[in-house]
Every structure is written in structure tokens, then in C-alpha cells.
């Protein structure tokens, strides 16, 4: 049974804990400074000989957590977003420590398969200038970042595959968008777990690709899948790297 340390014990941490035994995993430690019931910081003692640490904490603390995990050489799955600008330097440090690290903006298996559909669709519609491209995402009112990490990844993917879009506009537009601009809107409110929509629109018709999360369990299951895949590995991987190996 895979031994897991949870870093952050909010909604995601609790869900991972709840589902762990179903995926042949055991939570052996919980680190959460917001509660005196759990370990307050990352140390060899608080990791409790875990095979994998799973971090779903908060964007404001994830870099500090990564710093400690790398120093300790702890194989880790990082589901917290808001730090991906630092991936190059984190990758260098993690490889120097010969540890295994897997990260992702979205741990839903369905979303990661959806992004592959998006990639193919953008390439197809790119050949037909009648179709313009726009996108939006919406999340619950408590989400800490906007746009979502998943939206950023989807936008970057679109720019890679499109010959007509080379800039993303995230903010409100008080003018009409330029032809080379992808307007990707973000909406926050309610209890929405997560929705991402890509639309190809023309005067003739409109085609939408959408991914709608039904509940947060999809992220917890994905994190546990990632933890089991990473066990025993060294190197730095994205969720898509894992998926590529599985599909091949």
C-alpha cells in the first residue's frame, strides 16, 4: 500500500484522504498549519516516511513547501497552482536532488484528455478563417486564483496550435478584440467546481467543446493516480507526461 503525506487539509485534502483506501493508498501523515490537530510544517518527522507527499495547499505557501520538499528529496505530487512561472528553477533543483516531482494545473483525468481534444480541434479549425475562437472558464467564489491554472494552460495550448491567435486577453475588453487576440474570460461565484469552454464561432454555426466538473472527487482520484504512477520514479513530470506514458 502506498504511503501518503497530505500537505494542506482543506476540501481537496479531505477528499484524497476519504478516497485513498479505495486506490490502495494509506494516509500516514497530515501537515496543515491552520489546525493544531496536525503537523504545522514539513520536516522528516512530519513526513513520517511517506512514499509520496501530495500538496493541495495554497498558492501563497506552495513555493515554501516545494523548497522544503526538495531539500528533503521527498517525491511529491503538487496540485496547488499559482507557481508555474517557477517551474524551470524548481525542475533544476528537483533533478539535483534526484527526486520525483509531478505537477499539474488540473488533476482531472477528463480535463487532461479534454485538452488533447482541444489541441486537435484548434488545428482543424485553424484552416478555416470563417471561424473565430473564444473561451471562458468559471469557478466557485472561494477559488484563490484567476484565471485558473487550467485556463492558462489551455490558452497556451491554443496559441501553440493556432496560426491566427498569438495573444491572450484575460481582462475586461472595452473595445473590440483584435483578430490575433484570444479573449479568455474568467467568472467567479457560487459553488461551481470548474467549467472550461472553448467555442469556434462563425456566421453559419457554432461549435463548443466544454469540460464540466461534476464534483471534486475527479481531482482527488487524479492525484492518487499520479501518486501511484510517480512512486519509485525520479525526475520532473507534468500530468500530461504521465498520461502520454499511459496512452502509449
The order of strands across the largest sheet is 2-1-3-4-5-11
Mean pLDDT: 95
**Oligomeric description of these chains:** single chain
**Helix segment tally:** 8
Question: How do the helices and strands line up, and which of them pair or pack?
Answer:
Layout: E1 2-7, H1 11-20, E2 25-31, H2 44-47, E3 52-55, H3 62-71, E4 76-78, H4 87-96, E5 100-103, H5 109-125, E6 132-139, H6 149-161, E7 167-169, E8 181-188, E9 195-201, E10 206-212, H7 217-230, E11 235-238, H8 239-247
Parallel strand pairs: 1-2, 1-3, 3-4, 4-5, 5-11, 6-8, 7-8
Antiparallel strand pairs: 6-9, 9-10
Helix pairs in contact: 1-7, 5-6
What does this structure look like?
By secondary structure, this protein is α/β, with parallel strands linked by helices. It folds into two domains: 138 residues, NAD(P)-binding Rossmann-like Domain (Rossmann fold, 3-Layer(aba) Sandwich); 104 residues, Dihydrodipicolinate Reductase, domain 2 (2-Layer Sandwich), CATH 3.30.360. The protein is 35% helix and 25% strand. The chain contains eight helices and eleven strands. Helix 4 links the parallel strand 4 and strand 5. Helix 1 packs across helix 7.
Amino acid at each position: 500500500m502506498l504511503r501518503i503525506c497530505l500537505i494542506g487539509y482543506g476540501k481537496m485534502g479531505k477528499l484524497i484522504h476519504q478516497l485513498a483506501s479505495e486506490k490502495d493508498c494509506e494516509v500516514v501523515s497530515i501537515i496543515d498549519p491552520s489546525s493544531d490537530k496536525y503537523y504545522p510544517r514539513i520536516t522528516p518527522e512530519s513526513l513520517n516516511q511517506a512514499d509520496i507527499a501530495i500538496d493541495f495547499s495554497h498558492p501563497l505557501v506552495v513555493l515554501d513547501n516545494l523548497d522544503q520538499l526538495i531539500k528533503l528529496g521527498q517525491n511529491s505530487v503538487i496540485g496547488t497552482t499559482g507557481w508555474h512561472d517557477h517551474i524551470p528553477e524548481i525542475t533544476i533543483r528537483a533533478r539535483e536532488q534526484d527526486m520525483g516531482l509531478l505537477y499539474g494545473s488540473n488533476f482531472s483525468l477528463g480535463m487532461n484528455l479534454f485538452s488533447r481534444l482541444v489541441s486537435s480541434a484548434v488545428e482543424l479549425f485553424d484552416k478555416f478563417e470563417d471561424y473565430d475562437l473564444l473561451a471562458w472558464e468559471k469557478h466557485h467564489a472561494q477559488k484563490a486564483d484567476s484565471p485558473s491554472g487550467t485556463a492558462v494552460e489551455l490558452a497556451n495550448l491554443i496559441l501553440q496550435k493556432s496560426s491566427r491567435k498569438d495573444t491572450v486577453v484575460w481582462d475586461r475588453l472595452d473595445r473590440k478584440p483584435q483578430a490575433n487576440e484570444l479573449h479568455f474570460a474568467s467568472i467567479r461565484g457560487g459553488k461551481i467546481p470548474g467549467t472550461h469552454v472553448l467555442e469556434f464561432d462563425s456566421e453559419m454555426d457554432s461549435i463548443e467543446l466544454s469540460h464540466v466538473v461534476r464534483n471534486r472527487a475527479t481531482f482527488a482520484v487524479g492525484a492518487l493516480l499520479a501518486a501511484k504512477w510517480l512512486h519509485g520514479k525520479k525526475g520532473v513530470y507534468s500530468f500530461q507526461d504521465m498520461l502520454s506514458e499511459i496512452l502509449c
